[in-house]
Amino acid sequence: MDLRYYPEIWIELAEYLASLGRHNEALAKLQTASNILPTSLAVQFAYAEMAERMKQLDICKQTYEHVVRILRQGIESVTVKYSQKLEKLEKKLHQPTDQKGTIESQRAATGNAEAADTETSSDSDEDGFYDDEEPDASDTSMGSESDAEAPDSAASQRRAAQRAAKLRRSIEQRIARIKTRKEDKLEERREAYTLGWIMYLRYTQRSEGIDAVRQLLRRPRSEPAGYLTYHLYVAAALMEYHVAKRPGVAAKLFEYYAKTFSDSSEYIMEYMNYLISSGDDTNVRALFERFHGTSIGNANDIWTMFADFEYNYGDMAAISKLDKRFIDKFEHESVLTRMANRYSYLNVDCVAVTEFGFPYRKGMSLEESAASARQHNGNGRAEQGEV
């Protein structure tokens, strides 16, 4: 019976039935699967696509509405759950303690903090893969000697202060861990929610056309900040370009959301890739100049994409100027690494491999390739010196 909880079992069975021409049975199986696995995106998407093949569009719309609804609820659930845990710990962190109640308050605060952390980390659905450190026994065991001493003695007060400081550090560490878990879980939920909307937009474009897509897009666009990732807006812009054949609208969408995702190198690279593919050389260069000096310009991804563009389509003056800027910007860059990049095309990099002797673009990062190049050149000079 456990096999019924594996999405692939249902999907492969339905596809097999469909290949035999038993489409109604295939759809019925996926309907059953969607009821058993209501949160499985694979099952829900397969069910909607099977219904679409059979022209049962009401089922499709209901399924996609179900998907975006439960995915949005997932974001809200994670937000509420972790916010409650953090609120409890923040209260314990700032809870005042008097001298007489120091030991008792410390014990209670430690126990509650550990309970909150343990409850959060033990939830297998949310973050069971996190392994928290074991609670420090010294946080909860005050020792018989402390209990025996007078609470107003100087030694007892010093020990109480030390324990209070240690407890505070422990709670702060737990808060930091829970904040990390919260953000990780929210990122997973955001990506899934975004994917749900993209699949919904694709279906709408196929069944109703681009005008219906524009109407539907208003809903996710009205969501609070942080509910969706940049992928949705890339998908919407590219639909305008490829389906509606309106490059001007696509460019406006990319430009508009460049303000929202100005700190995302991935989004800016998608924007640049669109400009390159649409032949807008002027704006490719303008986009690079706008962002290369920002925080995302500190990574070499945008630089590498722009360099590939200039190497393929720019003139020699622009190429030479860019290479100099590249070398000045990144410590690991050199004349050789720039040549290795320049004298290559797609996966053809025989100059880098056979003449410079480092596996450029073959599973190594640029930094590793540059280090390999320096080592290779150093060994070569040493061998020449020996001769």
Give a written overview of the molecule.
By secondary structure, the chain is mainly alpha-helical. The chain has 3 domains: about 1-190, no CATH class; about 230-320; about 330-385, no CATH class. It is built from 19 helices and no strands. The chain has helices at about 5-20, 25-35, 40-55, 55-95, 100-120, 125, 135-140, 145-150, 155-210, 210-220, 230-240, 245-260, 265-275, 280-290, 300-315, 315-330, 335-340, 350-355, 365-385. About 25% of the residues are buried. This is mRNA 3'-end-processing protein rna14. InterPro entries: HAT, Rna14-like, Suf, TPR-like_helical_dom_sf. It comes from Coemansia guatemalensis.
Task: Name a few traits of the molecule.
387 residues, mainly alpha, extended, disordered C terminus, 3 domains, single chain
